[in-house]
């Protein structure tokens, strides 16, 4: 099981982690598919998580989710998002009882290809210490 702070962008569908869903944005339509962005976190970091189709209705704030074979990718606004992807799977494994932090937010870091290995991304700069899409909880 991986921690969110240890996950870096790469073209691999092998992210296995567990997190709590903190907040969920509004549902939008992309073609025939529903989609919504969520803020999720574990005890090491937070990240934006993309929900698709029925996932948008099924998962709620406070749900603890296990992601199997997920992937980090960029959405249209050039933000890094975690998602299950076509081969990945997400399942609810609990509710409300999980330690988490909201910073750093991995989606608010600018990632660039490593000059020594362009298949790997490294942190270039921090855009914001917290999510600009989901205001920090008090």
UniProtKB/TrEMBL annotation:
Signal peptide: none annotated. GO terms for molecular function: DNA binding. InterPro entries: NA-bd_OB-fold (IPR012340), SOSS-B (IPR051231). The keyword Metal-binding does not apply. One of its GO terms (biological process) is double-strand break repair via homologous recombination. Keywords: DNA-binding. The keyword Lipid biosynthesis does not apply. GO terms for cellular component: chromosome; SOSS complex. This is SOSS complex subunit B isoform X1. It comes from Tripterygium wilfordii (Thunder God vine).
